[in-house]
């Protein structure tokens, strides 16, 4: 029986080449997209899942509630870990992790700036699973001056992975002995690092690692619970124990399972849902093609079905046969899709920044493919199979029109396809528009021709002479320093500030040097900025932005005392609001600027734009490099341009835009493919009608207008349905931004017209062909 | 074997009922060779389809081997096809994508006949109809007569008690037609019940009874012998 089905399936496939090809191409495209997205989702869900204790690891979050606003922060104070470990028997281990930021490691002549090192408690080795190549987890972090390297870092410095016993010098100050080498962390790690030093070492680097339960909140805290402990309960217990409540503000510590942390921090869940939806929609469009083509062409198989029934087949057997054919076709398409996926994987990894690989023999992968085949096969095959199985042999043999009743359903399905295509097009247009808007948005900060360099202690201490030296070059216009990039002032804290009303308010604090205002082209709304002509500025003055003044509700405040962290300063000026967070998700926050005459984290150098050309530029950069090197010989200089600074956020949105763009193209293409096949078949059937019409005097134009009229109705209905859906979804998306484009009608119209034109072109091929055929030829068949 | 009581068939089209068959009473005994005749549109094919359980009746009773067919569901009726009924059509109705061998195999597959038995049955039938050499050819590689031969062979392979033939020779030349009729006659002599529809007086003469249909009614019945 099975053989018989397969034989007839293959012979039919070969007989109806065009339709098979259309179906296979459609299915292959749809399956390729779905498999790619499935791989992406799978990878996304497997992040941090390789740890043996994965189900017992939780991360502590600081939850801040201010009136109706809730913020979650993954970093907590260092005492949280010790408190949790000491007070909760449910907790087996607790560890703190702090990122070291930029440090320079050195051995012999090798001197490299490292940015992804961490300091961590020894218990981290018991909580997470790291594979030691050399050394062991019991002793590796015991000595405060030890360091664990990963494989490639060990190789980078020592040319071998067996580096235990070697010494690395950190920041030209501390000699650390290599006590362990671990395998490189898998790519599926959310918080990557390449070396570990003991947490207590942070003290040597000058960080505060004691403090109070809510200060300084700079460290990641992980706990390992005992088996069988319910995270939710434990979190609730902790929440009720470690908290602080103020007048309008409260802090709590809550636990989140490791499995949720990545998704939670990056908003990944929403992304997974959206991508999953896109995959389903594309698969749906493909299945609609299949259903439409198969049911339209069902007549070509009607005779066979009739004979089978007459010779003793029951409807179920017929349904099974046709479902089987669909699954066979789907399997074939899946094989092609896997090949295409393999070809596209590199590109996909580039776009997503992942390193997904597929292994044909991986049972999980095979199982997934079987799942995809079954799902698609059923989705595409069940309906046509049922229709076919219901054919009555006596009607079939009379050649009655069997498929005529399905026309309504077919129309509905085509309209559904176009609804999705139009929604995709609108989404692509809107997201592109919004991203363009964000890129061109005037932040109020002039970030052109500004180089920035992170300063180490050496440079910070010699900041003033360094500045003097740099300004000797005539191409350098300004030199200043600040604790943050002015386009990325993001971390705020709650204090009493402004006036003494005992209400804590959020404010972002920034250390700045002289010339900060000029370097970034900022303007004062009132008063003046810090200047070396006023010696009092060093300790007694403060500058804030307009939002800060508005938030506390002060007027004509310049020259008056201004409370900040329990101390009064003189407010000397108010800076005009500028956008200190390039994501533009929020309107400006209250900002305070504090003078720091010594160097702060960043050194900013504004090069005179009037003199910029390649040669002068290279010369100037060389000068900067030489000057900085002479002030900080141990540090390899790395510089960046401020206007190239972009956020993770913008990148993920850009990624989203690309995915939507590709989805739109695929959706439209596949929809048109289906339309192409369908019109080909329907015109084949209508050639006689068209022939008769022509004999009766219809012109080609009459015919074209007539046959495109109905089709236009479909597209109009599709637009009517698609617009509100798109408007609703995109309006919601745009709410993420404090500054956004307006959803103009033209976007919708453009998408509709685009869909219309593309699909009209698709069907016109067959329409013109049918309309221009000589009627004599057509009618001769009869 | 077959008993029809007041069978009727109509198509309703919103307001108008179009009658195809009315007041059909007939009985067919095992071993009969019945011919149904009548002008186009008289309802011959419809009657045959009802007898073959391919079409539903609008009213009346139909007993096949004393089973009330009008009360059976499709699955049960399929069971009757598989066991008792073979069809032969004017247009042969072979599956174009299957070879002669595979066409013969199809009813056996649906009847779930075991592989070994199936092979021997097909071999026997190919032999009996003298078409062994054609077994790997597709229908469109055969002449009309050969195709009808295969169709008859396919109908017979399940060893049916009843063969329903709808103008089996209609598309054949006279020589081929005679061959097919002789074959049916031979089968009838072996005990197979046959009901055929035809226009052709000569072919009608093979039957022992001729039922004349006119406008859906039984006009008259000619008994021979």
Number of extended strands of chain B: 10
Number of domains of chain A: 3
What value does the average pLDDT of chain B take? Answer: 88
| Structural category of chain A | alpha+beta
What's the architecture of chain B in CATH terms? 3-Layer(aba) Sandwich
The gyration radius over C-alpha positions of chain A equals: 34 Å
Interface with most residues: A-B, 24 and 29 residues
What level of helicity do the residues of chain B show? 25-40%
The number of E-state strands of chain A comes to: 26
Global shape of chain A: elongated
What is the tally of helical segments of chain B?
7
Biggest pleated sheet of chain A: 15 strands, mixed
Oligomer: heterodimer
Topology (elements, then pairings):
The complex is a heterodimer of chains A (782) and B (225).
Chain A (H helix, E strand, L loop, with lengths): L1 H14 L1 H29 L11 E10 L2 E5 L1 E2 L1 H10 L3 E9 L3 E5 L2 E5 L2 E4 L3 H4 L4 E3 L11 E5 H8 L8 E4 L3 E9 L12 E4 L2 H4 L14 E7 L5 H9 L3 E3 L3 E9 H9 L1 H29 L1 H13 L4 H38 L10 H27 L3 H5 L9 H34 L9 E5 L2 H5 L1 H9 L4 E7 L9 E7 L5 E9 L3 H4 L4 E4 L9 H4 E5 H7 L8 E4 L2 E9 L15 E5 L6 E6 L6 H18 L7 E3 L6 H48 L4 H35 L10 H28 L2 H6 L2
Parallel strand pairs in A: 7-12, 9-11, 19-24, 21-23
Antiparallel strand pairs in A: 1-2, 1-13, 1-15, 3-13, 4-7, 4-13, 5-6, 5-10, 8-11, 9-12, 10-11, 14-15, 16-25, 16-26, 17-25, 18-19, 18-22, 20-23, 21-24, 22-23
Helix pairs in contact in A: 1-11, 2-9, 2-11, 2-21, 9-12, 9-14, 9-21, 11-12, 14-21, 14-22, 14-23, 21-23, 22-23
Chain B lengths: L1 E12 L2 E13 L4 E5 L6 H8 L7 E6 L2 E2 L5 H11 E5 L10 H11 L4 H14 L15 H13 L5 E5 L7 H16 L3 E5 L3 H4 L4 E6 L2 E7 L2
Helix pairs in contact in B: 3-4, 3-5
């Amino acid at each position: 029986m099975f053989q018989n089905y397969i034989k007839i399936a293959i012979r039919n496939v070969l007989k109806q080449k065009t339709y098979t090809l259309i179906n296979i191409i459609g299915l292959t495209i749809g399956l390729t997209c779905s498999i790619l997205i499935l791989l992406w989702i799978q990878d996304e869900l497997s992040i941090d899942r390789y740890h043996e204790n994965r189900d017992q690891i939780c991360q502590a979050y600081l939850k801040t509630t201010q009136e109706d606003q809730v913020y979650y922060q993954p970093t907590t104070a260092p005492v949280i870990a010790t408190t949790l470990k000491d007070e909760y028997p449910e907790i087996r281990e607790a560890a703190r992790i702090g990122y070291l930021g930029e440090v320079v490691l050195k051995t012999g002549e090798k001197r490299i700036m490292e940015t992804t090192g961490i300091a961590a408690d020894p218990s981290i080795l018991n909580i997470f699973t790291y594979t030691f190549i050399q050394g062991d987890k019991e002793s590796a972090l015991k000595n405060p001056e030890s360091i664990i390297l990963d494989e490639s870092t060990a190789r980078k410095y020592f040319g071998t992975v067996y580096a235990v016993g070697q010494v690395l010098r950190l920041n030209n100050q501390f000699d650390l002995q290599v006590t362990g080498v671990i395998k490189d962390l898998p790519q599926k790690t959310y918080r990557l690092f390449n070396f570990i030093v003991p947490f207590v070492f942070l003290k040597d680097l000058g960080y505060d690692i004691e403090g109070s339960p809510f200060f300084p909140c700079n460290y990641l805290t992980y706990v390992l619970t005992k088996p069988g402990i319910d995270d939710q309960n434990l979190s609730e217990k902790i929440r009720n124990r470690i908290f602080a409540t103020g007048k309008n503000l409260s802090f709590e510590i809550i636990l989140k399972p490791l499995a949720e942390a990545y998704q939670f921090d990056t908003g990944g869940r929403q992304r997974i849902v959206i991508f999953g939806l896109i995959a389903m929609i594309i698969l749906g469009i493909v299945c609609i093609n299949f259903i439409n083509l198969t049911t339209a062409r069902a007549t070509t198989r009607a005779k066979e079905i009739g004979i089978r029934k007459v010779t003793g087949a029951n409807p179920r057997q017929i349904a099974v046969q046709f479902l089987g054919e669909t699954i066979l076709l789907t399997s074939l398409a899946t094989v092609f899709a896997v090949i295409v996926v393999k070809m596209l994987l590199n590109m996909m990894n580039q776009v997503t920044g992942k390193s997904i690989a597929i292994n044909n023999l991986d049972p999980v992968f095979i199982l997934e493919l079987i799942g995809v085949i079954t799902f698609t096969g059923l989705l595409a095959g069940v309906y046509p199979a049922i229709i076919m199985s219901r054919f009555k042999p006596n009607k079939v043999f009379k050649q009655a029109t069997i498929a005529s009743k399905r026309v309504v359903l077919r129309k509905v399905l085509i309209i559904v396809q176009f609804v999705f295509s139009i929604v995709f097009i609108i989404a692509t247009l809107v997201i592109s528009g919004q991203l363009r808007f964000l890129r061109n948005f005037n932040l109020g900060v002039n970030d052109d021709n500004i180089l920035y360099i992170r300063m180490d202690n050496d440079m910070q201490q010699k900041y003033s002479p360094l500045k003097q030296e740099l300004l000797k070059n005539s191409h350098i216009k300004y030199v200043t320093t600040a604790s943050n990039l002015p386009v990325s002032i993001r971390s705020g804290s709650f204090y009493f500030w402004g006036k003494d009303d005992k209400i804590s308010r959020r404010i972002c604090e920034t250390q700045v040097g002289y010339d900060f205002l000029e370097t970034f082209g900022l303007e004062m709304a009132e008063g003046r900025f810090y200047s070396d002509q006023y010696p009092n500025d060093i300790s007694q003055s403060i500058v804030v932005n307009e939002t800060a003044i508005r938030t506390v509700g002060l007027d004509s405040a310049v020259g008056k005392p201004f409370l900040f962290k329990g101390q009064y300063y003189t407010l000397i000026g108010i800076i005009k609001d500028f956008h200190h967070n390039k994501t533009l998700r929020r309107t400006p926050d209250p900002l305070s600027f504090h003078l720091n005459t010594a160097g702060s984290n960043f050194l900013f150098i504004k090069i005179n734009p009037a003199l910029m050309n390649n040669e002068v530029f290279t010369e100037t950069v060389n000068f900067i490099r030489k000057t900085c090197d002479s002030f900080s010989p141990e540090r390899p200089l790395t510089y960046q341009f401020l206007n190239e600074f972009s956020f993770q956020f913008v990148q993920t949105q850009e990624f989203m835009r690309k995915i939507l763009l590709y989805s739109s193209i695929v959706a439209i293409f596949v929809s048109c493919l289906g339309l192409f096949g369908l019109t080909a078949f329907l015109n084949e059937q209508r050639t006689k009608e068209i022939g008769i019409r022509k004999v009766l005097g219809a012109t080609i134009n009459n015919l074209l207008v007539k046959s495109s009229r109905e089709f236009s109705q479909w597209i109009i209905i599709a637009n009517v349905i698609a617009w509100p859906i798109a408007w609703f979804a995109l309006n919601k998306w745009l709410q993420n931004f404090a500054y956004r484009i307006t959803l103009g009608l033209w976007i919708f119209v453009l998408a509709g017209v685009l869909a219309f034109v593309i699909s009209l072109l698709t069907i016109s091929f067959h329409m013109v062909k049918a309309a221009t055929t000589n009627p004599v030829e057509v009618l001769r068949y009869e | 074997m077959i008993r029809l009581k007041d069978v009727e068939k109509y198509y309703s089209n919103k307001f108008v009922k179009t009658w195809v068959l009315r007041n059909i009473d007939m009985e067919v005994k095992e071993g009969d060779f019945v011919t149904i005749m009548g002008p186009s549109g008289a309802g011959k094919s419809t009657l045959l389809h009802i007898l073959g359980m391919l079409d539903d009746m609008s009213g009346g009773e139909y007993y096949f081997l004393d089973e009330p067919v009008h009360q059976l569901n499709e699955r049960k009726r399929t069971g009757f096809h598989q066991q008792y009924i073979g069809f032969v059509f004017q247009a042969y109705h072979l599956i174009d994508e299957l070879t002669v061998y595979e066409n013969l195999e199809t009813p056996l597959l649906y009847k779930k006949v075991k592989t070994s038995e199936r092979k021997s049955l097909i071999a026997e039938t190919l032999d009996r109809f003298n078409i062994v050499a054609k077994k790997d050819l597709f229908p469109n590689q055969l002449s009309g007569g050969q195709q009808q031969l295969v169709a008859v062979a396919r109908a017979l392979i399940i060893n049916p008690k009843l063969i329903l033939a709808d103008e089996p020779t209609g598309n054949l030349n006279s020589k081929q037609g005679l061959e097919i009729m002789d074959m049916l006659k031979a089968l009838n002599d072996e005990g197979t019940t046959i009901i055929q529809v035809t226009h052709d007086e000569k072919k009608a003469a093979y039957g022992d009874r001729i039922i004349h249909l006119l406008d859906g009614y039984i006009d008259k019945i000619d008994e021979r012998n």
